[in-house]
Sequence to fold (602 residues):
Amino acid sequence: MTFLRNNTQRSRSTRLAALLGGGVLIAGYALGIAPAAAADDPVKPAPSSVGLPATLTVGDTPESIVLNNTGTRGYVTLNKTVGEIAVVDMIARTVTGHIDIGAADPGYLAINGANDTLYVSTTDWVSGMGARMQVIDLASGSVTGTVFIPSEAQGVAVSADDASVYVVGIDGTLSVIAADTLAVRAVIPLPGQNAHSVQVSPDGTRAYVGLDGAFKDTPMIAEIDLSIPAVTRTLPLPDGDSEEVGGTDLTPDGTTLYVATGYGAKIRTVDVASMSITASVSAGPGVYRVAAIPENNVVLTPSLSWEYLLSVDTATNTRSNSARTMGAGAFDVAVDPTRSYAVVTDRWADTLSFLDFPAITNPAPVTVEDAEEATFSSDASNIYPSTVTLTWEVSSDEGASWAAVPDADEETLSFIAASADNGNLYRIGYHDTFTGARGYSTPALLTVGGRAAPPVITSGPLPNGVAGAEYGPFTVTASGDPVITFSAEGLPAGLRIDPATGVISGNSTEVGIFTVRVTAVNAAGSDTATYRVELTTAAVSPAPSPSTVAPTTPGGGDGGGTGLAGTGANAPTGLLGLAGALALLGAGLLIARRRRPLGHTA
Fold:
């Protein structure tokens, strides 16, 4: 979205006063004096309902801001003697660099959908360069093109297809510029001077421009048919010259336009199809920018006079009684596309003010026994008590339906669990009425009974093995519940443990003694056992001893073979030794019998 600035707040107000006939009011802005509140302005929020966002100093007089489509990077115009664009890391909240555009007064910004090109309007009357639109390549941070425009720009927008750039000028013209060639395709006259802000429909066929009539004509919204191109419809604002068009925002579907009316203090809702005002809310004095969060039915707008960020509920058409304190000169506003923060430029404080949206962490599952206390916890951040509520909910049907837990509006939920609660899901939700943000945590399971037991390794020592051979397999066992996962450190190369079954197997060629640490883990804890495993080389069987007499085959030998072989003359010496041993044994027995003592009977 493009947020555009009212010329009454520009540093060159003296020249514009002469041009527009509004010198007193414009000069007051140049001195930092905001306009007085209109008669029907709402009551200023009480201090007790005001939050204090974080701030970041960015440089001299920050005014307009745009974000990339992920909300990670922001670009801010700094209205110094030599203008610059501050580059801001929106996540780290730091200024990462500056882009020198060589112009005394940078104005409005627009970024293309590809997030690689920035368009900035500049005005340099001192050097005689006049009004220009400059093109910045964001990869290199340098100006790559310049387009001269008829008058000082007060709004820049890029078509959804990145093909065209639209610039509205103080002289009441809309310039259409080709993004690829930077050629001016058309300059469309508008019904009045002092054009403010431009929004382009998603299909690129229509543009909507605010005109405040140079403080003498009726302020209005003009619709331009870009195919003609010409103004086809106008919508006068009902309060006439008591209000002006400061900034606008078009919803992504192109159906609704929100209009901030500056010192008119109102936020107007315009139905684009009928070009009619469907709602008006008195927000506060000096509302010159507006940022819609249509999915939350919320519009945010800074009040320059009060230096607050205000919130309008577009469903009920009411302004929140709470507010967020901004720095001096609160002016432009942008909302992170991922909806995690909003940011405001503080012109006179030289800062950005950040409003972080609420956030919560997910509670962990809980297991208790029957009649024990169950406690679910979440860390909630950016909680403003005046606008943010927390709620715990329970589901007994696996998340198909949810019911609020009575009196549970804190970050912690505690209660005595019963067996009937087993299997219930619990979640925490938040709702911020200021930003419209709401959300829920991931559900957490409650288990009653069957408390998870940590593992205990129950298997005995690991067996030794042989290098080069298949090991085991050996299964490591452990008690405990729920499911256990196994791991091992120090196994010889080639062996592994199955994480699910605990089976150790494989083939290792390493030889030696190894110290192995086996660990079993589940949700309730862990257990570790240390083992000694030895892998040895394979056992080798000894070779047989040679015979003292070589065996002979029939008919062999030096003498050519005789009948001695048949009579056993060449029998193996082992047989002869056996016969001799038997003979000696027999003789020994005989001697033993003869030596028995006299009178011993057998």
